[in-house]
Design a protein that fits this description.
It contains 12 helices and 8 strands. With about 325 residues, the chain is of the alpha/beta class. Strands 2-1-3-4 form a 4-stranded parallel beta sheet, sandwiched between helices. A 4-stranded parallel beta sheet has the order 6-5-7-8, with helices on both faces. The longest helix has 27 residues.
């Protein structure tokens, strides 16, 4: 088609896949962590308290004391290429580039911090993307993870004159592709250990008990993932929940409590995985691999192994390619 004289250039129509993860500070220092926590803990999906009650606590106590402690934790796992979560999510995006055909571009974003979801949606639109698959990489649905990632994308779309068409990746907690990828990854890592675990823990990120009572399916999704993986492995997994925060009652049993109690019951050799995380991050590499080991060995455990997430492994990328290809059907031949 011949465009009228002076008409702006129109890029060729494309399709976009935007993989999304939680977020991370830009650096492992208190100022960067304070900025990140301020955004994260101000999200009404994350802390479901009236702002008039919560914000004075957040600004007056938490953001004056927690950043230094959290920065130290980040320093334990920070890589040469930055935050593990950001580096791995970027590598996942790179590993998926070109997987769906020449007309499909893959990008990545963080719900909190950078690169921001709205910025990447706008960049896609400016490059000619007319259809976008939003893919929050949370296998188990939770309002505080999946929903808030979609909220942020929709908030940017609400500002756009010309919106792209949008789809969202559903939770895949019980998808055979996901369970099989977990099984393959777990079997390979267990085979590489120099000991046979007495127990295998599946540790999921915790949520307040109230979220379950309000109808959030997250707890059920976690339990189903562990049950299906255990059945596939032919071995029962012990389900626990980590990362408690504040005084509210959280989903139980707590990972740290279980680890500390196991040696006293004769369970001296443990392997732990985190099937609710698509990429290793502070909560897996510092909370589980470092502090979890300290808790277990301090209570008398003799052998401990943290088993990494799927990350950008061959099996992990194959699973993501298959999941995303299915959601792109009708858009991509």
């Amino acid at each position: 088609m011949n465009l009228p004289a002076g008409h702006p250039a129109i890029p060729a129509p494309k399709i976009g896949v935007l993989i999304i993860n939680l977020g991370t500070p830009d650096a492992a220092d208190p100022p960067a962590v304070k900025r990140y926590l301020g955004e994260f803990l101000s999200d009404r999906r994350v802390v479901e308290l009236p702002a008039i009650a919560w914000q004075p606590i957040l600004r007056g106590i938490i953001l004056t004391t927690r950043p230094k402690k959290s920065a130290h934790a980040y320093q334990q796992v920070w890589r040469e290429d930055g935050s593990p979560l950001a580096a791995i999510t970027k590598a996942q995006s790179a590993g998926l580039q070109g997987a769906f055909g020449a007309g499909v571009v893959v990008d990545w974003a963080m719900r909190y911090g950078r690169p921001a979801i709205g910025d990447r949606i706008q960049a896609m639109k400016d490059a000619g993307v007319e259809r976008i698959l939003l893919a929050p990489l949370y296998p188990q649905y939770c309002a505080a993870t999946t929903a808030t990632a979609n909220d942020k994308a929709f908030a940017h779309l609400a500002k756009m004159r010309w919106q792209p068409a949008v789809r969202t990746l559903p939770p895949y907690h019980d998808d055979p592709l996901y369970i099989d990828a977990l099984k393959t990854n777990l079997e390979a890592q267990l085979a590489a250990l120099d000991f046979e675990p007495d127990a295998i823990l599946a540790s999921f990120h915790g949520m307040p008990q109230r979220t379950l009572e309000l109808g959030d399916p997250y707890h059920c999704h976690c339990r189903k993932t562990a049950r299906l993986l255990g059945e596939a492995m032919g071995r029962e997994l012990t389900v626990t929940f980590q990362s408690r925060f504040g005084r509210a009652k959280w989903l139980e049993p707590a990972t740290d409590t279980v680890l500390e109690a196991m040696p006293g019951r004769g369970v001296k050799k443990v392997a732990i995985l985190a099937p609710g995380f698509s990429a290793d991050c502070l909560e897996t590499l510092e909370e589980l691999a470092i502090r979890g080991r300290e808790s277990f060995e301090g209570a008398g455990g003799t052998h401990f192994a943290y088993l990494p997430c799927l990350n950008d492994s061959e099996v992990g990328l194959a699973m993501l390619r298959a999941l995303l290809s299915r959601e792109l059907q009708g858009w991509v031949p």
